[in-house]
Automatic annotation (TrEMBL):
Pfam families: Formyl_trans_N
Organism: Rosa chinensis
Keywords: Chloroplast, Plastid, Purine biosynthesis, Transferase, Transit peptide
Protein name according to UniProt: Phosphoribosylglycinamide formyltransferase, chloroplastic
Positions of the Formyl transferase N-terminal domain: 88-273
């Protein structure tokens, strides 16, 4: 697919047979215009290069439509915090249940985050996070293309979609695939991930889910907790942005520990995304990102 076409415009069509020329997103099937995409039954339809609309204008309509119909306060470029900081557009990447995604979405709705989720990206179309997004009328994009998920899109098309939706930040929330270099280069210092241990301990390829908590318990570590870090080309090695300490109890099972860490993940991720959207992240000369306190602008963590 030619990215030029993606950037020039989208229009919806019913389920198509030729995934080579089109990419897929989870949207209602009965719609023929962007303004009627949401709030109806869902089935696979595609976005397709279309000369009839400006993609930029259309993507705005899609986002507004999705948020309005799901009860979210619609975003607007002119809406700011009173200091000229506009609301940010967020893409969330999920492979599983999506409890972090839900808590981020809820925080956007209640106004704790100065931004809106405009798309959910997943490598598993049937995962809980994707179901939640569909239920809320949020666009779902399948990435990457694999044997199991042949409707998935390529890295270049993913970048085009995110650009088309004017995404400011990419938030990984339990997304179990390596992020392609095309996306990392397109979004410098704008992709963050949450990991359920105090990195650099218990990170890296294969360290995900319950494996992390089992390894923490087996190590005898007395403290663990979530880490939020910027994303580079490798697993869990990007610059650390925030951490929160959680105690490991002597008789913890991995499940009990995971639940305790997850509660803290939900709080920490929302706080950090709020800081990102309010432009309170600063970069030290040595390349370490730090967060300016909202309450006390002279204080950083
Ligand atoms: C979380 O533990 C997160 O740290 C890790 O994957 C898990 C996702 O959980 N990256 P959920 O899908 O948000 O419930």
């Amino acid at each position: 697919m030619e990215v030029q076409h993606l950037l020039s415009g989208f229009c919806s069509t019913p389920m198509v047979q030729n995934p080579k020329t089109q990419f897929f997103a989870r949207l209602p099937s009965s719609s023929s215009t962007a303004s009627t995409y949401f709030g109806q039954s869902h089935k696979w339809v595609s976005f397709k290069a279309c000369p009839c609309n400006s993609q930029r204008a259309l993507s705005r309509i899609e986002c507004r439509s999705s948020t309005e119909r799901s009860g979210v306060i619609a975003s607007s470029d002119s809406e700011d915090l009173g200091n000229g900081i506009r609301r940010k557009k967020l893409a969330v990447f999920v492979s599983g249940g999506g409890s972090n995604f839900r808590s981020i979405h809820e925080a956007c709705i209640r106004g704790s985050i100065h931004g809106d989720i405009v798309v959910l990206v997943t490598n598993k179309q049937g995962c809980g996070g994707a179901d939640y997004a569909r239920d809320k009328g949020l666009p779902v994009v399948l990435f990457p293309k694999t044997k199991k998920e042949p409707d998935g899109i390529s890295p270049i098309d993913l970048v085009a979609v995110l650009r088309g939706l004017e995404v400011d930040f990419v938030l990984l929330a339990g997304y179990l695939q390596l992020i392609p270099v095309e996306l990392i280069q397109a979004y410098p210092r704008s992709i963050v991930n949450i990991h359920p241990s105090l990195l650099p301990a218990f990170g890296g390829k294969g360290n995900y889910g319950m494996r992390v908590h089992k390894a923490v318990i087996a190590s005898g570590a007395r403290y663990t907790g979530p880490t939020i870090h910027f994303v580079d080309e490798h697993y869990d090695t990007g610059r650390i942005l925030a951490q929160r300490v959680v105690p490991v109890h002597a008789n913890d099972t991995a499940e009990e520990l995971a639940a305790r860490v997850l509660r803290e993940e939900h709080r920490l991720y929302v706080e950090v995304i709020a800081a990102l959207c309010e432009e309170r992240i600063f970069w030290r000369e040595d390349g370490v990102p730090i967060i300016r306190s909202k309450e006390n602008p002279n204080e950083y963590s």
